[in-house]
Amino acid sequence: MSQMSPTRRGWLVVGASTIALIVSVNALILTPYGVMMDPIAKDFGWTRAAVSNGLSIYALAAAIVMPFAGRLLDGLGIRKVGIPSVLLTALSMIGLAYCPPNQGLWYGLMAFLGVVSVGQGGLTYLKVASEWIDRNRGLAVGLVGTGIAVGQAVAPAFTELLMTTFGGWRPVFIGLAVLLVVLALPPLLFVVREPDAAERFELGLVATPSSRELPGLETGEAIRTRQFWILLLTTLVLGCAAPGALVHMVPLMTDQGISPAQAVAALSAAGLSAMVGRLIGGFLVDRFYAPLVAAVVFVLPALGFWFLSGHTHVPGLPLVGAILVGMAMGGESDLVSYMTSRYLGMKRFGLIFGIYYALLALGYAIGPFVFAQSYSATGNYDMAFWIFGIGLVVCALGGLTMGRYRYPAGIAIPVADDPRDAFEQIPEAVLVDNPVLGAHHHGRHGVEEPANPDSPALEDTRDPV
Predict the structure, then answer these.
(1) Could you tell me the pTM of the whole model?
(2) Of 108, 131, 169, 257, which sits most exposed with the smallest number of CB within 10 A?
(3) Do the domain assignments include residue 443?
(4) Major place of localization (predicted)?
(5) 277-295: per-residue pLDDT in tens?
(6) Which domain holds residue 302?
(7) How confident is the model at residue 246 (pLDDT cuts 50, 70, 90)?
(8) Which CATH number belongs to the domain containing residue 225 in this structure?
(9) Torsions phi, psi for 345 (to 5 deg)
(10) Is residue 248 part of a domain?
(11) What are the residue ranges of helices labelled H in 203-348?
């Protein structure tokens, strides 16, 4: 049996990562928690805001450790981080299933869950997919992200089924813990891994087989770019807006007289639209300017908020609003992941994207809290809709100022130290049919000798921005 090529193996890793992300933290915690919010509050005798605070504590804990998790992924690799995360997350969820009505203990378990679950999320699998796939990276991260979307789509119905079958919310956590181990552990044990040095060289990601690092900016260099800060602000605003609406979507709709079954169906529709949004977005960013695609995606929930508010009094529009919010929820991490790799590179991707993913996690804390406070203060969610709706429009416009990619597809191949050294020459198969690099890059890698071998290679004077 012939050995699998790196390209085919890369897409196999993408497929396995998609399966593992069906049980991402979004499907395990964020979506089911919204369905269980009122039953937990009733069982424990707490307010809806008190239950929502548990999710905020979980997200805050995850946000604090996320950059460190990204650094661990850069240093240790996905398996040494992902496998312990899966096992500890499952144990933590079983602990929640048996938790008594004690707020301190509940919040403590939610905080611990936030810490240990960071390895079973988009940060881990989007990073490994980006390391395998370059030219069609947008499609790759979109496919991986559909795992999150599928999980979000089926989680409400699965949660409702377990609650109806077993008569309460506690069996839901046990069922989700079992599902996590079944779906996430086998891919991590047998398929999902980073490419080795030889595979990176064959994929054209590095200049020599001995190259240890992928091209990109150091963290300090990235922080000094405007693109870093635009992505940071956008991530924070969208990370608050979409999860906040998603967590409160079921009670928001039932407050308008919509039946619980219809509200859960709308939540599932939001999950399905997230899957569609990821696939379409991934396809488009490989072919069009990513910030323009992102601007459209980020404005969608602002319109969705108006439909969800109920002020239109048009039957069916809340469902449309849920779909629009879901599409944005599907695009936030994928688009930010893609733009991080194109503007800041892959060298310190784990740490840099870990910072962004921390903001997404922080959004899970801030967003539901702001929506809960809006409801507590006014009896509706209009104030939260206005705050986040305006913020999303501002971020969409800001993203259009990011400029050209620093690391478009193919340009990530670094210049060889000595183009005359045969050992450092990149195979012709890697460089042919590359409209981004062209003959200029061919010559710099020794495929075409300079006219004067003693003269230094020409510098690329093109504006990287």
Answers:
(1) 0.72
(2) 257
(3) no
(4) membrane
(5) 888 888 888 888 899 998 8
(6) 8-399
(7) confident
(8) 1.20.1250.20
(9) 85, 180
(10) yes
(11) 219-223, 226-247, 249-255, 260-285, 290-308, 317-343
